[in-house]
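for the recovery benchmark. tokens below, seq after
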């Protein structure tokens, strides 16, 4: 089931009413309702993969007790058993075809022709996300930060909670499980805040991201015939499309959870206002970047064992992050580019600047230095995202080459209005809105006047329904990851 579907518009109110006004007297029944709703939500997409989700849930629930053993050898055995199981299932469905074709191509270079068996099935929805949920639970038990959960329903809700099941945020057991196990009381304020986030998320996805998608698809699909300024606009449009798409999903997920009495991790904190690439990764897909920091970078030694090993660890994290996004060399290239941008900051001890406060924290506008820093960071991000949008490294390089060749042959075009200028009508309002809201992404600053507030809600709702009938790009981009 998609958040941006009529089915979800029926599903959520029914779950909300049953949850708060029918089954609200007993926590166990509430959690069972959430679990059933989550399996219905996931099974609506494909019932055949629901068994895979349930299998992973049962195995990690069982492994957790072994990992908690006081016997170090037994604990380590179950830890590795869980790691191999989770990564094995993820690798089989997501990466088998990639490695099989790479081996085939390598053998053909040696003159050996093979015809490997390739999987012809869809990637199970959300597998990259719920696999990381299970692994974080096992890792935290092994580290002594989490005790095994005895109630299977509680653990199953943690793994498959429908707002975050398909594309996050990637939660930690220590944050979400206590909320699952604690009696929840209806809060009007929390429900209103959640509804606003849900509406804003739908607006970003359906009105902005899906509208930008039409221009992005057209430009990237015909880049050979486009001039430089059009291609630059197309790459900028994709940067805002993927941001509005994924942050919109996260807003809907966080908003839905708030309506049910849960607080999820923040996933985006206005990343395009970042002043360097390190700050960007503290603001973009926060639940994933913090997961890699805690469960990969730090266990590898982090920056504690000298600069050379710190550089090695950063490279490993970004390459794994790129590969996590997709089984293709263009995603690995994207991760490598971010390594190249991050390492100089690490070597110069500048990677921990701008740790907390958003740009222009106590001012209405940024200064010239901050504008330059934000523009330079955004330019790099947009350049790297070409490798995400293109269907392979060669198309990405061809796209960038076309920009360079066209700009050299016709430099005057860079001073003219590009084709698809309509994309700015969606980008500019999003930038203005983000700047206005930049101090707090969880609580939208709506007009205090009731008339203006409801007028804004009405406008957004009408725009959503109009765009929903006009746009055809329904699936969220991160579903493919």
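predicted aa per position
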């Amino acid at each position: 089931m998609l958040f941006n579907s009529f089915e979800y518009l029926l599903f959520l109110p029914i779950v909300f009413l049953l949850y708060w006004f029918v089954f609200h007297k007993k926590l166990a029944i509430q959690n069972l309702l959430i679990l059933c709703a989550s399996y219905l939500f996931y099974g609506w997409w494909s019932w055949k993969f629901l068994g895979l989700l349930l299998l992973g849930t049962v195995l990690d629930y069982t492994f957790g007790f072994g990992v908690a053993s006081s016997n170090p050898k037994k604990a380590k055995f179950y830890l590795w058993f869980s790691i191999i199981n989770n990564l094995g299932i993820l690798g089989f469905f997501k990466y088998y075809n990639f490695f099989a074709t790479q081996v085939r191509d390598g053998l053909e270079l040696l003159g050996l022709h093979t015809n490997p068996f390739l999987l012809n099935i869809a990637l199970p929805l959300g597998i990259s996300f719920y696999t990381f949920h299970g692994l974080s639970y096992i890792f935290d038990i092994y580290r002594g930060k989490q005790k095994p959960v005895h109630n299977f329903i509680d653990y199953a809700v943690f793994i498959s909670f429908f707002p975050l099941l398909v594309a996050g945020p990637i939660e930690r057991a220590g944050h979400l499980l206590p909320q699952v196990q604690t009696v929840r009381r209806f809060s009007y304020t929390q429900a209103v805040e959640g509804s606003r986030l849900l509406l804003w998320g739908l607006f970003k996805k359906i009105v902005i991201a899906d509208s930008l998608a039409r221009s992005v698809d057209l430009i990237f699909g015909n880049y050979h015939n486009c001039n430089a300024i059009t291609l630059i606009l197309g790459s900028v449009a994709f940067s805002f499309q993927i941001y509005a798409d994924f942050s919109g999903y996260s807003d809907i997920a966080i908003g839905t959870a708030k309506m049910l009495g849960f607080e999820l991790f923040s996933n985006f904190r206005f990343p395009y206002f970042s002043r360097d690439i390190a700050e960007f990764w503290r603001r973009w897909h926060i639940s994933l970047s913090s997961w890699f920091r805690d469960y990969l970078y730090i266990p590898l030694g982090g920056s504690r064992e000298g600069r050379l090993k710190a550089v090695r660890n950063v490279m490993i994290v970004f390459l794994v992050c790129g590969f996590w996004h997709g089984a293709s060399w263009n995603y690995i290239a994207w991760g490598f580019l971010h390594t190249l941008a991050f390492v100089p900051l690490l070597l110069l001890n500048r990677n921990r600047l701008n740790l907390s406060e958003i740009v222009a924290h106590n001012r209405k506008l940024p200064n010239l230095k901050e504008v330059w820093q934000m523009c330079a960071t955004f330019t790099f991000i947009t350049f790297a995202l070409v490798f995400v949008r293109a269907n392979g490294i060669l198309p990405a390089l061809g796209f960038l080459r076309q920009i360079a060749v066209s700009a050299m042959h016709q430099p005057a075009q860079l001073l003219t209005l590009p084709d698809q200028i309509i994309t700015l009508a969606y980008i500019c309002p999003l930038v203005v809105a983000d700047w206005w809201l930049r101090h707090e992404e969880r609580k939208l600053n709506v007009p205090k006047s009731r008339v203006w507030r409801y007028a804004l809600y009405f406008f957004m709702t009408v725009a959503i329904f109009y765009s929903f009938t006009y746009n055809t790009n329904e699936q969220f981009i991160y579903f493919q990851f």
